[in-house]
Design brief:
By secondary structure, the chain is mainly α. It is built from 18 helices and no strands. Helix 3 (40-47) crosses helix 4, helix 4 (51-78) packs antiparallel against helix 16 and helix 13 runs antiparallel to helix 17 (434-460). It starts with a helix and ends in an 11-residue tail after the last helix. InterPro entries: EmrB-like, MFS, MFS_dom, MFS_trans_sf.
Length: 491
């Protein structure tokens, strides 16, 4: 791909329109991940299914989504932007329609699978496109808009879902999303233009199989670890995932055109940034899982109240993400990241000392402080890592970033929930009441989350960004020397 494409927007491309179309698609896709959480009891009653079956509606979405993401690097290099986005948002809309009109659980599950197949493509595609159409000096602001979607959409999901299912029907969750997806699809068909260039990679089928078994096994194993780590299903699926992943990574280094390019980790800054991103994402998802358990089960507030408690923090993070992106463009990731992780740590530690009398306003403020800190870390650090790579590796780096975030978030949440469960059981066996046992479990889990925040803060000091001018010159030199494959036409 020519340097002109990498350093400045292509002519006759409406940047704002591309951004709007892709952000809308990503928003409904990510919102959909958490929308069913509080609706599951209503679905169980309506379709006459048990909790184990109902949980598959969220598990299958995460699994298919996680399996699709590693393949997106190949898809982005193989198919043009317009065709790929129209296909992905089209699949998502089709799955949403199937779910909305589903007469039984089986059809509803099919709808979720089709939804996830489309949603898994949208996020890495959007990230890659943004990195191509925006020059380095404004990528922070662009990625900040992605941060807005990542933080805000999942946070409002449970609150919105709780209100809708209490007032209307669980099917209306899908009917609300469907028009947005369809409008986005129609606009994309008529207005979306291709950006970037194709490289005609070859699809290695064994890599696809190993990737599916590897990431799918890990995601499923850790997502079902609440059964207990000694459960045969958990042990087998995690073992299959680990072995398959080892074989997958080994194979990628032997291929001339790997499905997922692990050589991106040869860049030290990218590697450190990805580790910090996974830790921070775990801190966000883990807290969003633990806090409702404390609020609803130990403090006996409603799901709607639980959603409202975390909503101000989500809104604050959404507002701050584009702002911190612009700050990153001026000062880089290290300074803003250190401040953000300090705020994250300060906001997390108090949750290690919760009681049955902890004021709700205090919880709201501390959670908002955490989310403010997260907004200063997640996308700036991610962008800093991606900025170090040449354009021909961006699709692989974006897929790697999203894959690690999914897998890392799943593993981290499973570990925190296990700590919560074991500590609660231990407290119960020592004679504490049910509520106090749950609170003790929450405190122990947040203590580990605090330690993770401190670890990320320490790692931030090892994030050494080269001067921005030097990075741009290095990329220009790499592109002009023709290190990457000759692109095919994006017609």
């Amino acid at each position: 791909m020519g340097n002109a494409v990498a350093q400045q927007p292509q002519p006759k491309v409406n940047i704002k329109l591309i951004v709007g179309i892709m952000l809308a698609g990503a928003f409904v896709a990510i919102l959909n991940q958490t929308l069913l959480v509080t609706a599951l009891p209503h679905i169980m009653s309506d379709l006459n299914i048990d909790a184990t079956a109902a949980q598959w509606l969220t598990t299958i979405f995460m699994l298919v989504n996680g399996i699709m993401i590693p393949v997106t690097a190949y898809l982005i290099d193989k198919f043009n932007t317009r065709a790929l986005f129209i296909t992905s948002i089209g699949l998502f809309a089709l799955g949403t329609l199937i779910a909305a009109i589903s007469p039984n659980f089986g059809i509803l599950l099919v709808g979720r699978v089709v939804q996830a197949a489309g949603a898994g493509i949208i996020m890495p595609l959007m990230q890659t496109v943004f990195l191509v159409i925006f020059p380095k000096e404004s990528r922070g602001a662009a990625m900040g808009m992605i941060g807005l979607v990542i933080s805000f959409a999942p946070a409002i999901g449970p609150t919105l879902s709780g209100w809708i299912v209490d007032t209307f029907s669980w099917r209306d969750l899908f009917y609300i999303i469907l028009p947005i997806a369809l409008i986005d699809l129609v606009i994309a068909i008529f207005a979306l233009k291709n950006v970037g260039q194709l490289r005609d990679p070859k699809l290695d089928i064994p890599s696809v199989i190993l990737s599916t078994l590897g990431f799918g096994g890990l995601l499923y194993g850790f997502s079902t670890a609440s059964k207990g780590w000694a459960d045969p299903v958990v042990i087998v699926t995690i073992a299959v995932g680990v072995v398959s992943l080892i074989l997958f990574v080994t194979r990628q280094f032997k291929l001339k055109q790997p499905l997922l390019e692990f050589r991106v980790f040869q860049n030290r800054l990218f590697t450190i940034s990805m580790i910090i991103t996974v830790i921070v994402f775990t801190a966000m998802i883990g807290a969003s899982t633990l806090l409702p358990l404390y609020i609803q089960n130990a403090r006996h507030l409603t799901a709607m109240q639980s959603g409202l408690i975390v909503l101000p923090g989500a809104i604050l993070m959404g507002i701050m993400s584009p702002i911190t992106g612009r700050i990153f463009d001026k000062f880089g990731a290290k300074r803003i990241g250190i401040i953000g992780l300090l705020m994250l740590t300060i906001g997390t530690i108090p949750f290690s000392f919760l009681t049955d009398q902890t004021p709700v306003p205090f919880i709201v403020i501390m959670f908002a402080l955490r989310m403010f800190g997260l907004s200063m870390v997640m996308m700036p650090v991610t962008t800093a890592g991606l900025n170090q790579l040449p354009v021909h590796l961006l699709s692989h780096a974006s897929a790697m970033n999203n894959t690690l975030r999914q897998v890392g978030g799943s593993i981290g949440t499973a570990v925190l929930i296990t700590i919560f469960t074991n500590a609660s059981i231990s407290a119960t066996s020592s004679g504490q009441g049910a509520d106090m046992s749950l609170i003790h479990g929450t405190n122990m889990a947040f203590l580990v989350a605090s330690a993770l925040s401190v670890l990320a803060l320490i790692m931030m000091f090892f994030l050494k960004e080269p001067p921005r001018v030097d990075v741009q010159k290095k990329e220009q030199s790499a592109e002009s020397s023709g290190k990457h494959a000759k692109p095919a036409s994006q017609s």
